[in-house]
Amino acid sequence: MKKMKSLLWGLTTLLALGGFVACDDDNDDGYWYLYPNALVTVKPVDSESFYMQLNDDITLEPTNMKGSPFGAKEVRALTNYTRLQEKSENYDQLVYVNWIDSILTKPAITVAEAEAEGLTRQDPVEIVRDWVTIAEDGYLTLRFRAKWEGDNRTPHLVNLVTGVNPENPYEVQFRHDTNGDGQRIWGDGLVAFRLDGLPDTEGKTVKLKLTWKSFSGPKSAEFEYRTRETTTEGGGTAEVRPALILQ
C-alpha cells in the first residue's frame, strides 16, 4: 500500500487563522465565517460540478462553485456555508459556500496490510469527544490529541486498522506512530478514514467499536455506523497550511 503524505493543521490553528478556500471576501460584519459549521464529504461529479454529503442522508449543492477545489478525489472537509431558500433540482439543499478546506482523508487498512508495511507501533494518543469525531457517510472521522516536537519536520503516522477482532468485524483500531518525533507540545489533529472494507450492514445501523492506546492505558468508544448507499473512489487529500504534519 502506497503511503500518502499530507499536511494537516492543528484544529485550533485552522479556526484561528483560516487556511481554507475562501469564496467570499465581502463578509466583514464579524468573524462567524471563520468557524466551520459543517463536516462534509466532497463528491466530484465531473470537472465542472460536485456536491457535498452532509451526513448519511442530506446532500448539499453549492451555487457559487463549479468543479471541486480538490480535483477528482473524494475528500472529507470542513466548511462554512449559508443555506439558501431556493430549491435544488437534484439534491436536498442549495447552499452558498463561504469557505471549505479538506482534511487528511485515507482508507482504513487491514491487519495484514499494517504488518506488511510495518505499521505496528501504537504511541499514546487521545481521541477527543467533539462534533467532528463521528462515523457517517462511510467514514470514521477522528479529532485526536497527541504530543509534538513542534518544529513541523517529523510527520506522525496515523492509521485505522480493521480485522483486529475475528469475532467482531466492526471493531477497528486507531494507531498513532510519532515516527521518532519529540513530545513536548500538546496538539490536535483531524483525520478521516474510509470504511468501505467493512462488511455491508445491509441498511442496518450497527455499533462500530474503536480502540486505541491512550496516555492512561487502553480505551475504546462506540459509534453508530451504517454502510453508505453509494460509493465513489476516494482516499485523497489536498494541501493546506500546516501546523502539524501527518501521514
Care to describe what's here?
With 247 residues, the protein is mainly beta. The protein is 5% helix and 43% strand. It has helices at 11-17, 111-116; strands at 6-8, 21-22, 38-46, 49-53, 59-62, 75-83, 93-102, 104-107, 109-110, 126-127, 134-136, 139-148, 157-162, 171-177, 185-194, 206-214, 217-225, 244-246.
Radius of gyration: 18 Å
Spatial strand arrangement across the major sheet: 3-4-5-7-6
Q: Total strand count, please?
A: 18
User: Could you state the order of secondary-structure elements as H and E?
Assistant: EHEEEEEEEEHEEEEEEEEE
Largest sheet: 5 strands, mixed, barrel
What is the CA-CA span between the terminal residues? 13 Å
- Helix tally equals 2
Unreliable runs: 1-20, 24-28, 231-247
Structural class assignment: mainly beta
The averaged pLDDT comes out at 83
Comma- or semicolon-separated keywords:
18 strands; 5% helix; mainly beta; five-stranded mixed barrel; five-stranded mixed β-sheet
List the helices and strands and how they pair.
Elements: E1 6-8, H1 11-17, E2 21-22, E3 38-46, E4 49-53, E5 59-62, E6 75-83, E7 93-102, E8 104-107, E9 109-110, H2 111-116, E10 126-127, E11 134-136, E12 139-148, E13 157-162, E14 171-177, E15 185-194, E16 206-214, E17 217-225, E18 244-246
Parallel strand pairs: 5-7, 8-15, 9-13, 14-16
Antiparallel strand pairs: 1-18, 2-7, 3-4, 3-6, 4-5, 6-7, 10-12, 11-12, 12-15, 13-14, 16-17
Quick synopsis:
The protein has 247 residues and is mainly β. It has helices at 11-17, 111-116, and strands at 6-8, 21-22, 38-46, 49-53, 59-62, 75-83, 93-102, 104-107, 109-110, 126-127, 134-136, 139-148, 157-162, 171-177, 185-194, 206-214, 217-225, 244-246.
